[in-house]
Model the fold of this input.
Amino acid sequence: MTTDTAQRRKERIDRGIKVRSDGIYALLSWRELAYLSVPRLVLILGILALPLLMPGMYWQRVISIVCIYAFLAMSFDFLAHYVGLVSLGGAFFVGTGGYIAALLNTTFGLPPLVTIPAALILGAAVCTLLLIPCLPLRGVYFAIVTLMYPLFMARLIEALDIFGGTDGILGIDSFTNPWVEQYFVVVMVLVLLFGLRRLVNTDLGLVLRAVKDNDQAVRASGMNVTRYKALAVFIAAGMGCLSGACLVHTYMWAGISQFALDFSVLPIAATVIGGSGTLVGPVLGCLILVPASELLRDFGTLRIVFYSLILVTFIVFRSEGLMVYGQRKYHQFQRWTEI
Amino acid sequence: MEILVYGTINSVALALYALGFALVYGTSRLPNFAHGALYVLSGFIAWSALNTLGLPYLASILLTLIVTAIIGAIIYQFVLIRVRGMEISEIIATYAIALAILEGLRWGGFKGMTYTLPAFIEGSTSIAGVSVDYQRLLVVIIGAAMVACLWLFTHHTRIGLALRGMAQDERAALMLGIDSDMMALVAMALGSSLAAFAAVLLMPLGNIVVESGYNVLILAISVCIVGGLGSWAGAVLAAFLIGFAQILTAVYLGSHYQMVVALLAIILTLIIKPSGLFGQQKELEERV
Done:
């Protein structure tokens, strides 16, 4: 005989307001309009207000770095959870974008507002071309190959002593004005976030998700899987290169450390903590992790240990992440039911 | 002649790196990205057993093998068992463990010239005019013996056969009463202690360096990809191919390009024969 406690279970039910606001009827009531728009407005206004709320230059700089990591984290989330390509080499994108922006700036004297878009397009093209041979790979194999790329690029620059070798490229222009720098990255985060959310629900996004779930079916429908993967990598690499380009203009320096592990690990940790597959989650994760890592700056490489342990804990005990948990609480309620 | 001798030694070293990874991934489908980290960690365990605890060399090697096996089992039992089957989570979890171990060691100040393990036998001899120290000879002999032992283990013992059964068809293996979780635990423990084995055998050739953790992982995986998993012959052949290619590039192009060889080997294999040298159909489906 089982006890009473064993005979009940939790059930989750959508809140009435969620069901009502799913349809066009949301437009008929202020309450439902608010239900839909408040979370989005809180996000948009909150992110826009962040630079204003920060005390002093130092923390404003931290906000820029948060946004730069947020690009990377979103690109990881997009590739991993909407295309099924787990890329452990975010640093490859950062480094490529960073070096391209740095070279354009120092050699041709182009201003940051030209080099950043140029680095985005060029860098994405370079990364995609270099990754194309590996695109047929799946899962573990793709992960390991992408892990190798940044190590390999760093070695290559060291060995050939090109692009300033181990010293890196110095004397890169910064943004003309700190407010331009702040608001450029902040607005880009919002644009990319909502752009990606829209993209994954278009027909293209549907095909990409099909590639993740069952690529044989996509192939059977007469679509070229590798071409779609290349397109997705182009988008993700573009975001990575954008963060690299912003980073070199913020620090006014490009070097081998742009291929370092930090840029591969922190975005992954942010994605897992924030909630994988939500695209908002990674931004939230960065908002938590990057300031935490600034506070831990004195500990050196112990920071990486710290992210890794958080990462393991989250993936084992709370693999859904904060955002998914929050969405569930917002949309659904739980209750015990007798069986 | 030098190329032949050092190429052989390098190839056996590569095979030793890859054995543990291949065993774990080949049997339980767990990509153990912490393999390289366990390799470095066991080097430090051996060092501290030898220098801090003052144990004799043989005892500290045995201790290292056992401790690393236990660490591997702990990683499986407390972390991997919960994420098993979710590929993305498996990769991220093991990778994070690897980073925690390696960066923790780096933070702990384990770097520099001070951390070396002594050779088993000092001195050197010459083979066909090339001087080779005894340690490198031992690496080749013990490495070859290890591959043979593993082959015998997986083909002629109950546990080994159970592991292979899991690799072929997990569901059928479960029906025959093979405990899948137990076997994965055994595989992780064995794989980790193989990493430790490689470490104590190869580390006397140089310093114990934290960075080598990443290289070992990459080399191990490139050997597995080129060779095709589940086939010992393929892994050994791949180790020899990559090993000789590395020595040749080091001699003719410069040692900076050694890592490029591994990457090129992976890419070429995937383009020309995606299932690996001796891979079977199952792997082909998994990869492309």
User: Anything to note?
Assistant: Residues 2-210 of chain B form one domain. The two ends of chain B are 39 Å apart (CA to CA).
